[in-house]
Write a structure and sequence with these properties.
The complex is a heterodimer of chains A (113) and B (223). Chain A is of the alpha+beta class. Helices cover 27% and strands 34% of the residues of chain A. Chain A has a single domain (2-68, 100-112), classed as hypothetical protein PF0899 fold (2-Layer Sandwich). In chain B, strand 3 (59-65), helix 3 and strand 4 (82-86) form a beta-alpha-beta unit. Classes of the chains: A alpha+beta (113), B alpha/beta (223). The interface between A and B is medium-sized, with 32 and 32 residues.
Chain lengths: 113, 223
């Protein structure tokens, strides 16, 4: 259900950017979504379609780039992609810092003036 | 034309959560966000904790429920401030909603705010509400596979309460599997095994909570 919240937030950002750039039509929205965020792309697509009706983004393509979870070990500095274990693959330490994979970012907007 | 945007979609929620965190830091109030499935035992755990701590500390609770005031009524019996948020279908609390609830409380006379999030293992973990710590409440009757199936919660949580351990003999719950899958996600996450029918099992959780309250509020150790 949080897909709808995400889409509503996306639209408030789209409106802002469209206004700043005097876009009359949005044709493509590219999102980067971290795998840790549990977002189900198909549901997001459906929510986008519903919310975009009668807006500048009607019929726009929503392109979703999944981002794998990447961590850096705070102990040895090793960087690695997480499969199912959040444990340094080099030294076994649990103290990790997330580099990417927990984000929901609007990367680009395409549209016409 | 293509426009580089690079904006975080949840930025508005994060900003509001940061405001809440700053406010509660200024007021020296600890806020604990309890997240778990419907029926995991969140309300009863709060009740048991209130019995132990409400004379020592000033505690309020914020109750998030899709519908009904059932849980809020249960907690009102303890004569503490309770703010009910009915989300009318929304599966989580967000920072804007929690801020409204917090502003209904007398922040000058509180040490601890419990937020009982909407019963759900997915969405509440996504939303920062300005808490000091997220506590994942899992119960043995739900099965030992929950960490593996809902990894974000166990990544975000600062503590796990494994509830209803008294039921283990009647279920196929394997505590070793549960613990090792939590470890895989978050190797340093403390897990407290609790049961609301065994007061002694709550000691570790109560001690942890008291220490956290003292660290946040600066209240001297009660003798």
């Amino acid at each position: 259900m949080h897909e709808l919240t995400i889409i509503t937030n996306i639209f408030s950002i789209i409106d802002e950017i469209a206004e700043e750039n005097q876009l009359t039509k949005i044709t493509r929205v590219t999102l980067k979504i971290g795998e840790l965020r549990h977002v189900y792309p198909e549901m997001l697509q459906n929510a986008f379609e519903i919310v975009s009706k009668d807006t500048k983004a009607e019929n726009a393509v929503l392109h979703i780039k999944p981002i794998r979870v990447k961590m850096r070990c705070k102990h040895c500095g090793h960087e690695f992609f997480v499969n199912n274990s959040y444990c340094c693959k080099k030294c076994g330490d649990y103290r990790l810092k997330i580099i990417e994979g927990d984000e929901i970012i609007i990367e680009t907007l395409e549209g016409d003036r | 034309m293509e426009i580089k945007v690079m904006k975080k979609v949840m930025q508005a929620n994060i900003e509001k959560a940061t405001e809440i965190r700053d406010l509660l830091n200024r007021k020296n109030i600890l806020m604990v966000n309890l997240i778990g499935s419907p029926g995991a035992g969140k309300t009863l755990l709060i009740e048991k904790t209130l019995v132990r701590l409400k004379e020592k500390y000033n505690i309020a609770t914020i109750e998030g429920d899709i519908a009904s005031n059932k849980d809020a009524l249960r907690l009102q019996k303890y004569r503490i401030p309770v703010v009910l948020i009915n989300t009318y279908g929304s599966c989580h609390l967000d920072s804007a909603t929690v801020e409204k609830a917090i502003l209904e409380l007398d922040l000058d006379s509180l040490d601890l705010i419990f937020v009982e999030n909407v019963g759900n293992l997915v969405c509440p973990a996504e939303f920062d509400i300005g808490e000091d710590i997220k506590v994942a409440v899992a119960s043995t009757a739900e099965g030992d596979d929950k960490p593996e199936k809902y990894p974000l919660l166990f990544r975000e949580a600062g503590l796990v309460l494994l509830n209803k351990v008294d039921l283990i003999p009647y279920t196929n719950f394997d505590i070793k599997i549960f613990n090792s899958s939590v470890r895989k996600l978050n190797g340093l996450l403390p897990i407290y095994e609790v049961s609301c029918v065994d007061e002694n099992s709550l000691e570790g959780w109560i001690d942890w909570l008291e220490e956290s309250i003292r660290n946040k509020t600066g209240i001297a150790v009660p003798i």
